[in-house]
Amino acid sequence: MTERTPLLHYRLAASVNEAEVRPPPAGQAVEQPPGTSRQRSAQQRQPQKLSVFFGVVIPTLLSMFSVVVFLRIGFVVGQAGLCQGIAMFLVAYFIICMTVLSVCAISTNGALDAGGAYYMISRALGPEFGGSIGIMFFLANVCGCALFVLGLVEAVVATFGIPEDGVVLSASQVLPSGYWYSLLYATAIALLCLLVCLVGAHIYAKATFLIFLVVMVVLGTIFISFFAVGPRTITLPSSSSPTPNLTGPAFPTTANFTGFKLETLLGNLWAEYTVDYTTGTMMTFATVFAVMFNGCTGIMAGSNMSGELKNPSYSIPRGTITAVIFTFIIYNLLCVLVACSCDRVLLQRDYSFLRDINIWHPLVTIGVYCSTLSAAMSNLIGASRILYALARDDLFGKVLSPAKKTSHSGNPWASVLISWFLVQLVLFSGKLNTIASIVTIFFLLVYAAVDVACLALEWASAPNFRPTFRYFTWHTCVLGIVGCAVMMFLINAIYASASIAFMLLLLLLIHYLSPTSSWGYISQALIFHQVRKYLLMLDVRKDHVKFWRPQILLMVSNPRSSVGLITFINDIKKSGLYVLGHVQLGDLNTLPSDPLQSQYDSWLSLVDHLNIKAFVNLTLADSVRHGIQHLLFISGLGGMRPNTLVLGFYDDSFPRDMLIDPSMSTIQCLDHSDPSPPFDQNPPLFHFSPLRVSSERQDCGEFGDGKALGPQEYVAVIADAMKMLKNVVLARYFNGFDRSEFLSPSFFSPGKRAVYVDVWPVNLLRPDSSSYVDTCSLFLLQLACVLNMVRAWRKAKLRLFLCVEEGQSVRGSEEKLGQLLKELRIKAQVYPVPWDQQERAEEEEEEEYVNSFPSNATRLSDNYLLAVNQLILTTAQPAPAVRFLYLPRPPADTRRYATYLRQLELLTQDLGPTLLIHGVTPVITTDL
User: Fold this and answer.
1) Is this model's pTM higher than 0.85 or not?
2) Which residue stretches of 126-207 are H helix?
3) CB neighbourhood size of 509 (10 A)
4) Which of 238, 263, 669, 879 is the most exposed place for a label (fewest CB within 10 A)?
5) CA distance 708 to 704
6) pLDDT tens for residues 50-59?
7) Distance in angstroms (rounded) separating the CA atoms of residues 392 and 371
8) Pick from 123, 30, 124, 126: which is nearest to 514 by CA?
9) Does domain 740-744+752-840+858-927 have CATH number 3.40.50?
């Protein structure tokens, strides 16, 4: 809500909390105190009536004119000199001006509601940025409140405190001094602020204009006093640290107000850093800047009044910029007047010298008390409102739930108490200059975050980001970020690093732990912007076989029976595109709405649940074949389109529901860390239809469990994909596939059996019609190699089976294949497999019939297919985790589709997890 001065909200006078008009987080029921609805309705009926001056200028000025203008102007000039002092103000105002431009841009981007800067930023940029910035706002306000309380204590002790040497110079010096007494006074002031915030915050809101008038009158008398008061000698505070003054051999007790003299100006022109008499520490440019910068904060107080302004988009830019220019002029005029009329010693040894040179001493004291007390209460109110807003948004779960409690009038008293308690802890630091660096770094970090937010909105190029305030560019945002970052590390590198690390930690915590919000995420807009740019750069005409990777469309009828296949294909994609496709039968003409829209949440929840990296693409069609054609045509974008279609095998295997099977643990198998519970119950967002429980034939195994797809259409889908130059993979026996069974660490331990992946890169239906170097065989080798490159499968061993006919040289064939594998950089063990005489006899019986067909779909006998099946089973021992087999083309004669499918079924019978693969495009090369 506010960073320094907070809610000077007009609504506080009516005891209506600004959070009441804020929409609650999605899905959250918000407690409403009695009468809230009527109060909100009444508030909505009231016109917004604060002008630029009352709604923006006054709050911002009161935020920026605080302890610095009365107690630290002399400190800045005395330590840094006039030249460096003005340079400090130029740097500080350059930083805040860049941030003001960002604030104005965000605040004018559409209609504004009440809620302050935190509300605007969080709703504009999403919970990660909003929550982390909100916490930093909260901490900045807490530390700022403590800073002003300590400044007020310093002013009180300077006026009414008994000097440490016991020499009382005035009858008003009656208060004992020292660290513990100062802490006691600070605690009392903090308690006063607490009572006002708990009981009478509206009194402060009503007195805002009066406080502003008092501060302006005091400033006026200060300017007049420089001209009206003659030269005089001023006694320095006797409570100074006994450290010798580095500018002279002795420790002076008096100093002079000389009036306007050139000699005085020349003496104050350059820097002369010495020991701060309130803390006993040596001052530097960075420490002085840290103290001075606290007088430049508070620029967001006007934007916090957005809900009370007649025209926020008009008022916030003009009012904030006006206040910034006015304060800059006042600060620099005071620096010049002070440098021309006050001795350097006076500026270094007496921070309250403006009271001694004023035409009426109590006026400055009144001004100091009013400005610091109002700033302290403003920061406490602001901190409590920010904490309350964070608690209501549930960004940190139950941690902040106590801060949601409010009174009947809507005052968040629990947040006020928590904020006051933290302020009390900060008060133990004891001195204003001690915490000034911390407060300044917090505000610089918040300003940098606001600039980052505006920069992100600008770079995202979202059509809805079109603020009416156009006097900013990404250059001003970058300059603000760089300026804030540089000054943070110049002030204190350790504090700056710790603050940045803390903010990043908050951002990560919110990103991973907070529930999904409906505010919108700037990260998604930025990702979209960059992805679109890179997709346009991904030119398909520049594709090269050296950089080929699998881009897979896996067709899934019901995910309940396909968990094993889904997770396995996620391994084999090798950082390529992975799309889960689903076809729902129906005609949109006969339906009231698209039935697929309500299913996306379930599918996306499945992707999250299985911890896979995949897209989801659903389509509505009159048949499964047409639906798959649609997906093959439209899936992907630009150069990222599926090049491989994966189907579950069409057989009569009985499906198992792996989403509720407690023995299934697919998430555990990659890193063996298992952050998720087993599948012992249905995840709440899965609304997939249940599987068939009858023992009748299941039409397509892992591919589905209904009767929507027949064998003829299934083979037609394979043929369609090949016509479209898509590689085809048929996956069988993956219904109960469990990666953890094969890839658990115990299987790779000494003494345990190894895991194998078998590759048969030859057409087993016609071994004499193909070789190991055709496109399809090389595609098998490539996919097996890709699987072996995945971290979870890296220790698995590839076994390549070389089919050698009788009469051929086994050694020569093995050496030739080994040379090919060497050229392809594939590490595999070659096993020669001689063909049995019976198998050859079976093949010879059908040779004439085979040669009469243009395709590989022949009338092979069942005995031959079963013999080949047994050969695969008996040769490959121990049994592999997965087998890769050659998939022949479907026959040209569509009447032979059923025979073709039966041949594949007999060939792969009881082989365990098996992939039948057909490649149509070159995917591997031996070239560099």
Assistant:
1) no
2) 127-160, 179-199, 201-206
3) 18
4) 263
5) 9
6) 778 887 888 7
7) 31
8) 126
9) yes
